Amino acid sequence: MTNLNQSIPGLSAERARIPPFAFVLTTCIGVIGSNSLALGPIAPEVARSLGADVPAVMTASGAFGLGTAASAVFLGRLIDRHGPRRMLAAALILLAAGLGGSAAAPALPLLVAFQLIVGIAAGVALPSIYTLASIIAPAGRESETIGLVLTGWTLSMVAGVPLSAAIADFAGWRTVYIVVATATLVACAAVRFVAGTEDAVTDDSGGRQVGGVRATSPLAALGVRGVAPLLSACAVFMAAFYGVYAYIGDHLHAALGLPVSANGLVAVSYGFGFGGAAFLDRLIDRFGAGRLLPLIFLAVAGVYVAMAAASGSYVAILAVVFLWGLANHFGLNVLIMRLTALDAARRGAIMGLNSGVTYLALFAGTIGFGAAYAGSGFFMLPLAAAGLMLAAALFAARAPR
């Protein structure tokens, strides 16, 4: 098998084919996202079944997030030692086990414990996926390949969330986890057997090393030039997203008087925007990721300002949310491109730090924006997010190109 991250003689970047293994990685993102987004819609049914209230049930989601963050930071470095494909396959097996345990959990504490296990698995799987995406990408089509893989989040949002709610209504909430666990095992088999890439990384001189790379500490990876400003940009970027997304549904219900089902169209609109951006990813390769990232973050800031202006109209919010998904896709895509290009021999550790920062930002953004929402209402949240995106643009501008 070949490493398609190298130039292909006699074949232009436009004609170089994105390998089918990228679709396997897209599916892996989809099953991880389906778990992370599934609990919210089915929480009332879970609460009724386990004799708890919805806030208590949602502690399982918090356990998933904390497990993902800790695992990504402290175990992500093992990807560089054992290879991303091998680590992804192992993580998916653990993920399926945790999902199976979640389906069988007889009490809430056990559901929380199994979701913590799922989070630990996701914390290894996500940086492995992003690392593999950067390795298999044909030269000149890096952003398109990564963008294709990122559409797995769209699959989980547009298809996974509605299907989870429907399955819970029809067959019970435990069936949701059984279905996702089965899909995870299928994805694991595909990772193991579909031709894609060797468990290889590239050293600083451009040579390839297959496994056996010394596992660097998270702090060592943090010392790579450019990692700190880009991770700082990631932190504020994700805090802005999760802080606004967490409360937009309640705003529609409490302030605009819409039914809870109206939240579904918000998720679908965002998902279509996020997924639709994949068709424009080749523009990133054409203009260069380094110079585009600060501009993309400024564009995201503009979207948040528009969201604040549109906060009184459901139709206007849906239109802005579509643009939100579009802009966030570009931001996440280019951010991953920049991070994976900093040190090829430490991609796993760096992407582990990225995933850890992302899920810590989820926690901080949800808590911090929650206090602002309680005190000032939704209108102030997009404006605060716009301010964070200005900081993200400054951090991105400081990173070496």
Describe what this molecule looks like in 3D.
The protein has 401 residues and is mainly α. 77% of the residues lie in helices and 1% in strands. The chain has 16 helices and two strands. It has a two-stranded antiparallel ribbon with strand order 1-2. Strand 1 and strand 2 form a beta hairpin. Helix 1 (21-50) runs parallel beside helix 7 (142-171), helix 5 (84-104) runs antiparallel to helix 6 (108-136) and helix 13 packs antiparallel against helix 16. The longest helix is centred in the N-terminal third of the chain and has 30 residues, at 21-50. It is globular. The two termini are 31 Å apart. The model is unreliable at 1-14 and 200-213 (pLDDT under 50).
Helix and strand composition category: mainly alpha
- Uncertain stretches of 5 or more adjacent residues: 1-14, 200-213
Mean pLDDT level: 85
Radius of gyration: 20 Å
Largest sheet: 2 strands, antiparallel
Number of helices: 16
Give the CA-CA distance, first to last residue: 31 Å
Order of helices and strands: HHHHHHHHEEHHHHHHHH
Characteristic terms for this protein:
single chain; 401 residues; mainly alpha; two-stranded antiparallel sheet; 77% helix; MFS_trans_sf
Topology:
Blueprint: H1 21-50, H2 54-57, H3 59-75, H4 78-82, H5 84-104, H6 108-136, H7 142-171, H8 173-193, E1 200-202, E2 208-210, H9 218-222, H10 227-254, H11 262-276, H12 282-287, H13 289-309, H14 314-340, H15 347-376, H16 380-398
